Amino acid sequence: MKLRICTTLFSLTVAQLAWGQTNGKLVNTEGNAPEPSANSYTVIGATPKQEALVRAQIQVMQPDVYPLRVLFVPHWKYMETARIFRLHVPAGYTSAMFTHLPSRSVFIDSDRYVSDDSLGYWVAHELGHLAANSTRESDADKAAGEYRKRLRDARKPDAH
Ligand SMILES: [Zn+2]
């Protein structure tokens, strides 16, 4: 029980750090947050276009576990947050997002935002971490496969 309380406090603190300068009108509902369902998660720090896109993609993917929040943060804050979480972010340029499982937060490096397609591809991977409740890349990719398929199916020209 004690451990759980510590974890909650920890994620609160870090979430506030991460939110700090990206969103001035933050309303913090953490602590009494209801179980998330489709679309009840918050998207923070994104442009309206990015937010619409990431919500549409997550809706298409219908993940087994939804994030509580998706945060778009500048690169320096992304690296700092990873450091605070003691997460290993690979030195290469393959990692543009990561997920903090205890707080179900997906962090996206907005300075490495490449294209709409790659956003969906990597968000699928992060949702895979949540679905598998695992930090292992292989577990995440396994779950992501189905989500990526749903994305591809939704994009097919004959789908409309
Ligand atoms: Zn991963």
Write a concise keyword list for the protein shown above.
160 residues; alpha/beta; Zincin-like; four-stranded mixed beta sheet; 49% helix; disordered N terminus; binds zinc ion
Task: Give a verbal description of the structure.
The protein is an alpha/beta fold and 160 residues long. The protein has a single domain (2-22, 38-159), classed as Zincin-like (2-Layer Sandwich), CATH 3.30.2010.10. It has 5 helices and 4 strands. A 4-stranded mixed beta sheet has the order 1-2-4-3, with helices on both faces. Helix 2 links the parallel strand 1 and strand 2 (69-73). Helix 2 (48-61) crosses helix 4 (116-132) and helix 4 (116-132) packs across helix 5. The radius of gyration is 15 Å and the shape is globular. Residues 1-10 and 19-34 have low confidence and may be disordered. The structure holds zinc ion (ZN). Residues 125, 129, 137, 140 line the site of zinc ion.
CATH class wording: Alpha Beta
Which sheet architecture does the biggest sheet show?
4 strands, mixed
Radius of gyration: 15 Å
Count of separate structural domains: 1
- Strand line-up in the sheet with most strands: 1-2-4-3
Q: How would you state the average pLDDT, rounded?
A: 79
Q: What is the name of the CATH topology?
A: Zincin-like
How does CATH name the architecture? 2-Layer Sandwich
Q: Give the uncertain stretches in residue-range form.
A: 1-10, 19-34
Give the gist of this structure:
Helix 2 crosses helix 4 (116-132) and helix 4 crosses helix 5 (137-155). The protein has helices at residues 2-19, 48-61, 75-84, 116-132, 137-155, and strands at 42-44, 69-73, 97-100, 105-109.
